Amino acid sequence: MKNTILTTTLAALVAASSAWAQREERFHRTLDVGPDAALSIGNISGDIHVEGAAGSTIVIDAVKSVEDEEDAEMLKNVDIEVSQLGNRVRVSTEHTGRGRRHGNHDGNVSVSYHVKVPKGTEVEIQSVSGSVLLVGVEGAANAQSVSGDVRVTDVAQLEQAKSVSGNVEVLRARSGRHAEIESVSGEVLVEGIEASELTVSSVSGDVRLKGVSSQRASMESVSGDLEYTGSIAASGRYDFQSHSGDVVLTIGDQVGFELEASTFSGEIESDFTLKTTSRAQKGRRLSAVVGDGSAFIEASTFSGDVRLLRR
Amino acid sequence: MGSPVAVIEAKRAKSEGQLSPFPPQSLDRDARRREDDELVERTRRGEMEAFEALYRRHSSAIFGLALRMLQNRADAEDMLQEIFLQAYDRLPSFEGRSAFGTWLYRLSVNRCLDHLRSRGAREQSRTEPLTPELPGRVSTGGLRGLELERAIGELPPSSRAAFLLHHVAGFDHKEVGEMMGIAVGTSKSLVHRARTRLKEALAR
Amino acid sequence: MTDEHPEIERLNEYLDQELAPRDHRQIESHLSRCEGCRQVLDDLSAIVRAASELPPIAPPERIWESIAASLIERKSLSKSGPAWRSVLLPALAAAAALVLGVSLWLVLRTGETPTPADQEALAYMVTEELKAAESHYDNAIVGLEQIIAQNDGVLPRELASVLTQNLDLIENAIGESRTAIATEPQSTAAQESLLQALRSKVTLLQNTILLINEVRKGQGENALDLIDEMRKTTDPSNPI
């Protein structure tokens, strides 16, 4: 979405007059940054797409738009503010004027951003109702939306990928510290992550994971199902907990592990031979050791089922 | 054999992020025996921690024996539990004529042999394939060690027991004889036969 | 003995130095001339060496926990003689202690001759541990809910509704867990479910406050106090 025309500063942008009936305004800015740059971008309504690329500039392309022509004059109530201090760039959508009283909406103005950053940039994205896409950055990565979906792929230092009602998807990520991937009511999908510590959760959405390598991984849902497919890191500790959802694990046995499965009123089904370890309790607690038992897996539910499948 | 148990304990405690509360065992066999004797005495006086210390000091060796005798992880875990519970029960009548470790090994090897000889146990043990459950960490040139473990599993019970007691646990033939209730000569012969079979198995 | 290749049994005896000196010398001499037999001897030696290096194998920790629990249960049922001073605690207490991460030995360290009243008291104490954990969470929750109540109407309706729905879901989970505990107090599955659900509630309330914060910032209001209030309520020094 490179727009070669507008390279002028914000002040040069002229809001459309209603006679012109322009529903869109484009914005373009290029900033020089060095290595170890940081980008923080906040938006209310509209999608945000940030992508790592070669080079040492941050290139911002944005489109302010309204759906109805009659709202066109609202465009001037929304500013795109860009500030730079050394290597740190901050971009935000500011609602000025009348629309401010309406809380987060200025009529129906939405701003969609497409930003290219140097690969090593630290990126923080906050959106309210737009979706977020963050791809290919090696600096610390934080992506959040309230009602939009969040998608993070090919990042090297994931810190957070969160949404409240949107879905969260993380593919091919690494993290040197604690990575948090969460939604409240949305679904969470993680495929291919390597993190020293990991928390993946949803309250009411399902959580699906494939290929997690972590020393300490915690997967939780209250009513959603938890599904894991893949192998387990040797000497890792993986906890799966759901209240009423099912926990379904499909695991290879190349790496040995110790497994504890428990449920209060659900069923436990397993391809691995399980031994009863609970005594005189309602509810079932079963365990198994496969291979050298170096990793540890705990799968528990309250009323959901636990299913352990051998890959 | 140094004090491999202490090393393993320390490693495990470290990996669980805590220091082991149990002081490492002395390298000297006599000193170890005296320490065990003291722990037995304290256990008799009702100190649970002393029994736990005895467990920590001996469980890895006994578990190794049980695993190699029974060739089945789940059975070995049950066996370990039963052995220590039985040891606890019999402690009042342990007179200290032999070292606690020797007494414990004797209890263990006999229970394992009984288990192997009972028909029921033989059937149950076939449910889990053995190979994936062999001890993973072998110090002697990886593959060789694993082959040896597998080959040990194919020895007939008495040979297996005598071999493990003599060459792995380090008891002399007199001690092995006393533990298994056999003559010294029989112990030698069982161990030799075991070695011969192992050599043939590994040469294949 | 002739100079034929010795039987392997002889080699075994040779290896263990069990032969009479004359037989020993004869075999030694044969070995110096016979590659094949030397090989056999080397194989036997290698086996002995490899066997002496077979390591002890650390058993999983839960085996000790099982043993300890058995001993405790056993004690509570038996009439102990004077030689065996014991501390009585029902197995359920041991199991519950493990769930809550309470050191088993802490619980056992009373060291006195127990009475039936003690026994009951000890069992009650473990339930008390669970109650203590619960009340930590409850306190945190009350504090967070107050902050949220003071900021009623700040969040956009749709968002507030998603949060409320999910909060209700967690409430249900808490209710189910409590019911389960009431009917099956020993069930560790029920206890764990309760604590997990309480944790989820605290997390959701904290996130709600962070959102309120964001909205207030957007409206140019000073929102920093909220974070401080929240931190005070969910003091990290509380063992949650």
Could you walk me through the main structural features you see in this protein, from its secondary elements to its overall organization?
Chain A has 311 residues and is an all-beta fold. Helices cover 0% and strands 57% of the residues of chain A. Chain A folds into two domains: 1-144, no CATH class; 167-311, no CATH class. Chain A contains no helices and 24 strands. The relative contact order of chain B is 0.09. With 204 residues, chain B is an all-alpha fold. In chain B, α3 (48-70) runs antiparallel to α4 and α8 (157-168) packs across α10 (184-203). With 240 residues, chain C is an all-alpha fold. The N and C termini of chain C lie far apart (79 Å). The relative contact order of chain C is 0.07. The chains are: A mainly beta (311), B mainly alpha (204), C mainly alpha (240). Chains in contact: A-B, A-C, B-C. Chains A and C meet through β19 and β22 of A and α4, α5, α8 and α9 of C.
Distance between the termini of chain B: 29 Å
Given as residue ranges, the uncertain stretches of chain A (5+ residues, pLDDT < 50) are 1-20, 99-104
> Major sheet of chain B: size, sense and barrel closure?
none
Rg of chain B from C-alpha positions?
17 Å
Q: For the record, what is the CATH homologous superfamily label of the largest domain in chain B?
A: RNA polymerase sigma factor, region 2, helix turn helix motif
**DSSP helix fraction of chain B:** over 70%
Structural class of chain A: mainly beta
Number of helices of chain A: 0
Strand content of chain B: under 5%
Question: What value does the average pLDDT of chain A take?
Answer: 85
Overall structural domain count of chain A:
2
Parts with pLDDT < 50 across at least 5 consecutive residues of chain B: 1-21, 123-143
CATH topology of the largest domain in chain B: Rna Polymerase Sigma Factor, Chain: A
Encode the helix/strand succession of chain B as letters.
Answer: HHHHHHHHHH
